[in-house]
Amino acid sequence: MNFLLHFEWKLRRFIMNFTPLWTAALNAFSNFIIVDEHCRIAYMNKPYTEILNVQLEDVIGKPIKSVIPTTKLPEVMASGKAHIGALMTLYDHKTGKDISFVCNRIPLIEDGEVIGGVAISTFNEVGEIYNLYSEVEKMQQQNELYQQTIEQLRKQTNPLDYIIGTSQAIQQIKSTIAIFANSGLSILLTGETGVGKEVFANALHQLSSRSTSNFVKINCAAIPKDLLESELFGYEGGAFTGAKKGGKIGKFELADGGTLLLDEIGEMPLPLQSKLLRVLQEKEVERIGGVTPIKVDVRLICSTNQNLTQLIQDGRFRADLYYRINTIELAIPPLRDRLDDIPDLCNFFVQKFNRENSSYTQGVEQEVLALMQQYTWPGNVRELEHVIERLCFLNPHSTIGIASCDFLMNKLSGDHTLSRPAAAFSSLQEQRSSAEIDLIRQTLRQTDGNKAKAARILGIDRTVLYRKLKKYHID
What we know:
It comes from Coprococcus catus. It is built from 21 helices and 14 strands. With 475 residues, the chain is an alpha/beta fold. The strands form 4 sheets. It has a 5-stranded antiparallel beta sheet with strand order 2-1-5-4-3. The protein has a 5-stranded parallel beta sheet with strand order 7-8-11-6-12. The chain has a two-stranded antiparallel sheet with strand order 9-10. A hairpin with a 2-residue loop joins strand 4 (97-110) and strand 5.
């Protein structure tokens, strides 16, 4: 008896020494109870005492079975193994009815010996679990609906529509893409800088069965050569100085099940080309610092603005890799070889910038389109896009006319590759002066006569603007 009294005194002292912070923390749990190695109650939080309609002081030191006859905590302690997610039913004295909740029972082990046990409920009522399950089920149904909607939209929108142009060269490329997009064959896109190779790569991915998986892009020329390998194949933690603790997956793993675009493949170092060839042949990657190959299923698209056959002759590109990535080659023509596509491209870009800038540019006048078709566009479609962007800024609520095209005329006058009659040059000079006057006057009206602001919009120095005002007698 003295032993029991001493034990009860120790437990009471233990409870009394609980700080308010600890008590508040333990009371935050739904139902929480601690027992010692003899399955006697050492602590019970307030929510649990309220359900059982007992006082904490009255149950301290009592066998748990005498207070909660249905508890399985003694059996769990005897087994030494936690019991997670068990259902338990008790009579709730607060509500006057039975309640069921999820209970986690855990033995407390120190130095291999069970020194006590703890039980805690994660849900006050099973109804909460059903509510949670219903929410998860609803989210799954919504996700399925979203996936169906995305698939329907994908079928309604033809990815080839984003390849703008009706010229014979573009139509031929579209036909080839339609044939081979779903084949899984490696594709090599060749063409000058700015022709829009990524647009064609996007169409290839979107038309394939991999369209709902990742489309990963990496520019081999934009990443330092000593980092390119880790970007492509990933690395394990501690593989090199500065490596992330948990490692990092590479682009091949990220594109697993989808498509990987290697832009500017001609810039890839020779040693890395060998590793890439092995990955394509074995269909597996090995991270830097790793020892276990990782299987990958990737459709590869490569693009370049270089002559790879010349690089092979120069010893800068592997012939075997070239033949591996060049199963199908799509040679994208420069804009100068498809000038008939300029009207369609201009219309596309005008609509694009109207959406982006909430502007209302009405289109491009035929006179401007004719002017654009005289230019050789060394920057190709990208250069045309930037020209249209500037013209849309200058004409946010009107049609793009010749008066806004002073800078384009400067391009034309410096383009010595044009073939036109000599007489046309003098008329063009006259037209240029007239357009320059109109543009300066229009810009001054937009800026309420603020010459400094007008010069910034025109992209010229303020002193140049003053010279032109004097030259053309503009007040």
